[in-house]
Amino acid sequence: MIFSKTFGYALRGILYIALMQDEKRFVQIEEMAQKLGVPRHFLGKIMKRLVKEGMLLSVKGPYGGYTLSDATLQMPLLRLEDLTDGLGTFNNCVLRLRACNATNPCPLHFQMERIKGDLRRVMETTTIADLLHKDKKEFINSIATYEFDGSMLENEN
Amino acid sequence: MIFSKTFGYALRGILYIALMQDEKRFVQIEEMAQKLGVPRHFLGKIMKRLVKEGMLLSVKGPYGGYTLSDATLQMPLLRLEDLTDGLGTFNNCVLRLRACNATNPCPLHFQMERIKGDLRRVMETTTIADLLHKDKKEFINSIATYEFDGSMLENEN
DNA sequence: TGAATAAAAGACATCGTTGTCCTTTATGGT
DNA sequence: ACCATAAAGGACAACGATGTCTTTTATTCA
């Protein structure tokens, strides 16, 4: 499936935080989980991890929550993938053969190196900020899980 | 990681069988597992599945084992991927959003549709037979797991 | 018919991912 | 100081992918 669920939750979480920065300094996990339709405690674990890795800032207590810096907005998606899924997709043989390389290629080596190269390029050259340029409401819909029928988020903002 | 271990084992198993067809009518699971460096019983399960799906033929008892038809050699890799991993990679949003599509795209939709399209094309247009054209010994090395130093398979054939 | 061989079948174990729950720690407001 | 809030931390559960083991079924050969 290319990415883990963890990566998906992490990216959507970060995007949601980024999107809310003009409204509030900190976003709470509860709000994120509800708006995104994601398991609350699992998302909490992921966020904690990202905080530890310096990708997010967190503040405990009332009015606390998560926030992110401009530096994070400029990070390539590859960095996030590294923190969640690791880079096995790019560093390992698709058939997981240890000895596979250009001089001793597995049967799929060259075809897949091309694909992996293309994918890596996207992940390297696309930043968090690059994903953000859109109408805010529409954007939130596009990262929420449920089948959106136009009625759910309208009255919250 | 793009493909599961199961897919890798399945493909390598099929390729090994295909490669042995000029020497013996049937290939035994024991031999496959040893030569490929793959867990024997797990490989057995996978082969059983492929037999049930019509991709392989099996015969029980002495001199029995697995064999495959020319039709199988002409099958695209996508068919094997479907039987093992399913086609979620192509049919689902990379972020697993149910509502994601061209008119309501997730933030990664268009970049990833391109990658997925490229990958799908490779899997659709490449057949088992396409992977086979090589020196036999060299080819077996290329699908064996261990780090090959030139000494391991030499005395077996 | 009996013995050996090999796949099929199914029970069970391990492990990583995903997910839940409860307790602890930090912070802000009163 | 006390209370409420919210993240951090850790224990544990559920599940699917992966892997092992034993029994059953089919086939060959003598």
From TrEMBL, chains A, B:
Alphabetized InterPro entries for the sequence? Tscrpt_reg_Rrf2, WH-like_DNA-bd_sf, WH_DNA-bd_sf
Instruction: Extract the PROSITE patterns matched here.
Output: HTH_RRF2_2 (PS51197)
Gene3D superfamilies to which the protein is assigned, alphabetical: Winged helix-like DNA-binding domain superfamily/Winged helix DNA-binding domain
Query: Can you tell me where the transmembrane regions are?
Result: none
List GO molecular-function terms, semicolon-separated.
Answer: DNA-binding transcription factor activity
Q: Name one Pfam family in it.
A: Rrf2
Please tell me one Gene Ontology term that the record gives under cellular component: cytosol
Q: Which domain of life is it from?
A: Bacteria
Official protein name in the record: Transcriptional regulator, BadM/Rrf2 family
Organism, by scientific name, is: Cnuella takakiae
